[in-house]
């Protein structure tokens, strides 16, 4: 259990960090994920920030989301990065509007619903609803064959840039998988740009992945959209999102499930990519596993020391995978381990919530305690070594604040 003392300390540290990373541009306010490494506004990061801020600063939580929707594309896309100011780092996908042209995990409805649950401010829901509605309906256009699953056009859209579950769709041979993943992703930007990013018929010939975690987030966010629509009496939208949720749930079961696991799939044959990453647990948040399936998943995979039950949990890639690489490696940026083993606090938060939903309180509490231990021991880092707990990657990284939401 987190005792009151610890809870108080972590909250103070999170508050300090969020003030340090706060930026403004004109009337807009947002939070940098890490001033040294990520000096822009990122989409899913801002959704996390709003959820974290809603624990101690509701006004800033709302501002974070207002700035996020301020650069919505005409077609409805909410871009994955807003480059509010020019910096030397990471400007690979910079277009004329000062944003990227990709998507990122679609968590905004969950963030808005969380804020609403705490404060009952219906005017905020009304303000956010139309842009969110256009956004989710836009994502659904990425489904030319009406499979009821949304296609990703770049690994970055999953939020897990170099996860090994994208090695096969990137066309990497096993020996290339570690070093060339990132380079291939960057080449894809250029090719997608030539296609026009929202030209589904063109981009899907380059990279076309129906990701298990992204789909699970969508399902949870469709539920939030239908509930928010109900609150503001948008009856058509309420029914629409209930329907989308049902169809996507069915499609995931039909196309992604095998051997007790929901897998990411790719290509026109919906081929399963049987690489065990933390994403096999993501469907817990959407309630996709049956009770029995969830029990087996936890016993066989989560609590399995050869896969995910390492001294610190949860490694983003299972120990049993050949691509598992838990620690820092010197050399160029694309040799970093990132999503190929290290623990990130956001996946911990998702799995924590999924486990709670199913009543697996023991495992959920262990994840919460270990997450808190990592932040206390190693600070607010981008990711952590699953065997030693060592902090790795960017400094002053905000996602550690999600431990406040594990309650
Ligand atoms: C890294 C992460 C991505 C995140 C970004 C900003 O690129 O992989 O998920 O949004 O950093 O924090």
List the keywords.
binds alpha-D-glucopyranose, two-stranded antiparallel ribbon, globular, 12 helices, 3-stranded antiparallel beta sheet, 407 residues, mainly alpha, 44% helix
Describe, in plain words, how this protein is organized in 3D.
- With 407 residues, the protein is mainly alpha-helical.
- It has a domain at 143-275.
- Helix content is 44%, strand content 7%.
- It has twelve helices and eleven strands.
- The protein has helices at residues 4-20, 43-53, 58-69, 108-119, 122-139, 177-195, 200-203, 212-231, 235-256, 291-302, 345-358, 361-378, and strands at residues 22-25, 28-31, 41-42, 81-82, 209-210, 257-258, 261-262, 264-266, 271-273, 383-384, 391-392.
- It has a three-stranded antiparallel sheet, covered by helices on one side.
- α4 (108-119) runs antiparallel to α5, α4 (108-119) runs parallel beside α8 and α11 (345-358) runs antiparallel to α12 (361-378).
- It is globular, with a radius of gyration of 20 Å.
- Bound molecules: alpha-D-glucopyranose.
- Alpha-D-glucopyranose binds at residues 33, 38, 42, 44-45, 159, 161.
């Amino acid at each position: 259990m987190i005792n009151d003392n610890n809870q108080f300390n972590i909250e103070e540290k999170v508050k300090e960090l969020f003030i340090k990373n706060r930026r403004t541009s004109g009337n807009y306010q947002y939070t940098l994920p890490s001033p040294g490494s990520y000096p822009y506004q990122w989409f899913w990061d801002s959704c996390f920030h709003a959820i974290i801020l809603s624990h101690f600063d509701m006004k800033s939580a709302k501002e974070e989301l207002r700035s996020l929707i301020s650069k919505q594309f005409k077609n409805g896309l909410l871009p994955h990065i807003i480059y509010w100011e020019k910096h030397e780092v990471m400007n690979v996908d910079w277009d004329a509007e000062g944003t990227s042209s990709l998507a990122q995990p679609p968590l905004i409805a969950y963030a808005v619903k969380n804020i609403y649950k705490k404060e009952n401010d219906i005017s905020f829901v009304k303000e956010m609803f139309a842009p969110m509605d256009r956004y989710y309906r836009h994502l659904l256009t990425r489904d030319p064959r009406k499979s009821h699953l949304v296609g990703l056009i770049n690994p970055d859209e999953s939020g897990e840039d170099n996860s090994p579950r994208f090695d096969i769709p990137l066309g990497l041979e096993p020996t290339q998988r570690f070093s060339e993943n990132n380079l291939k992703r960057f080449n894809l930007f250029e090719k997608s740009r030539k296609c026009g990013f929202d030209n589904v018929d063109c981009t899907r010939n380059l990279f076309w992945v129906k990701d298990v975690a992204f789909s699970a987030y969508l399902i949870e966010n469709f539920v939030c959209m239908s509930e928010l629509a109900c609150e503001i009496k948008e009856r058509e939208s309420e029914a629409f999102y209930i329907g989308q949720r049902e169809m996507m749930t069915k499609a995931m079961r039909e196309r992604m499930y095998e051997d007790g696991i929901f897998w990411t799939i790719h290509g026109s044959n919906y081929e399963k990519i049987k690489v065990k990453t933390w994403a096999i647990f993501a469907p817990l948040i959407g309630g996709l596993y049956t009770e029995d399936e969830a029990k087996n998943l936890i016993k066989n995979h989560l609590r399995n020391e050869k896969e995910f039950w390492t001294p610190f949990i949860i490694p983003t890639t299972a120990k049993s995978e050949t691509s598992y690489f838990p620690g820092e490696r010197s050399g160029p940026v694309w040799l970093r381990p990132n999503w190929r083993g290290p623990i990130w606090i956001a996946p911990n938060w998702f799995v924590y919530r999924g486990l709670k939903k199913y009543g697996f309180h023991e495992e959920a509490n262990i994840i919460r305690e270990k997450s808190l231990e990592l932040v206390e021991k190693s600070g607010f880092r981008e990711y952590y070594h699953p065997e030693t707990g060592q902090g790795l990657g960017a400094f002053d990284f905000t996602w550690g604040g999600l431990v406040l939401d594990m309650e």
